[in-house]
Amino acid sequence: MKKFILLFLPLWLLAEAHIFVLHRVDDFRYPSTNIDSKILEKDIKYLLKHNYKIVKLSTLVKRIENNQSIDKYVVFNIDDSFKSFYKNGLPVFKKYKVPFTLFVYAKATDEHYGDYMTWQQIKKTAQYGELGVHSYAHPHLAKLSNEKIIKDTQKAINSFKKHIGYVPNMYAYPYGEYDNRVQKIINRYFKVICNQNTGAVNKNTPINDIDRIAITGNVNIAKKLKINVLNVKNLTIKKDKNTIKEVSGYVKYPYVYIYITKLGWKKINTNNGYFDYKPNFALKKYRNRVIIRYNNKIKTKLILKEE
């Protein structure tokens, strides 16, 4: 009976969107954050050929808020406002008349860092997409006091007001790093907040904690589009100081694979959907991923090591 009922559910209830984030374009000095413009063009052509709808982040958010279909919607985010995007990436987006959302690292522009756009270039770029805020000084936010996070955020806001004339309501964490404390502070100033936890977007995605998929190197966009949201109920990650004691939750599947940075993957069988993994693993790095996966469905959480 359940399978029969599912056949009559509106397809948009099952639909998902994808947000791809890139940084540098044709800047081969930094392969870990670079994409070849020819590959970027190939990816965009693939999306258009297969009838994906490439939109600005604000458009996708509005559709989520209005409970509208986001099936086959794709968003491109560009973090850091590198000059290489202006020179090598923007012409590709203009050629195919598809929009994007550029998150601006304000201090780099204010202080005329060589690899970054000027405010004039940012204004010109915004004509073909939209802008978001990527902090002022690009700090590791979780390492800052509340007062310093607020100061950095207010400096970014003031810089946008001075040079752009308005403040976008969208923010992307520097380095993709955040915790509950950081999120609460940033959420005072911005409605839409992007992380860099690999995953897709569905109608239940909180708009103040949006997953994105990084694209660098020789991207297989078709493979990236297969990533879907894994719905995990009651997800709990118990940590004692810097040791992950337990990862538990509920899924509707017989097993999941769980990944922890520097520990690797572990298959965990579920008990009536419940899984309880006790790795007792001491974190090795400052920034760590806990990924829960079933086939192409994934859920990612960022865990920061306390220093």
Short description:
With 307 residues, the protein is of the alpha/beta class. It is built from nine helices and 19 strands.
Molecular structure report:
Helix content is 28%, strand content 28%. Strands 1, 4, 5, 6, 7 and 10 form a six-stranded parallel sheet that branches. The protein has a five-stranded mixed sheet with strand order 11-19-18-14-15, with no helix packed on it. It has nine helices and 19 strands. Helix 7 packs parallel to helix 8. The N terminus is likely disordered. The protein starts with a helix and ends with a strand.
Name the CATH homologous superfamily of the largest domain.
Glycoside hydrolase/deacetylase
How many domain regions? 2
Largest sheet: 6 strands, parallel
CATH architecture of the largest domain: Alpha-Beta Barrel
User: How many helices in DSSP terms?
Assistant: 9
> At the third CATH level, what is the topology name of the largest domain?
TIM Barrel
Strands, count: 19
The CATH class assignment of the largest domain is Alpha Beta
Low-pLDDT stretches? 1-13
N/C terminus separation: 53 Å
Strand content: 25-35%
Shape: globular
Please give the radius of gyration in angstroms: 20 Å
Can you give the helix content as a percent range?
Answer: 25-40%
| Average pLDDT figure | 95
The ordered H/E elements are HEEEHEHEHEHHEHEHEEHEEEEEEEEE
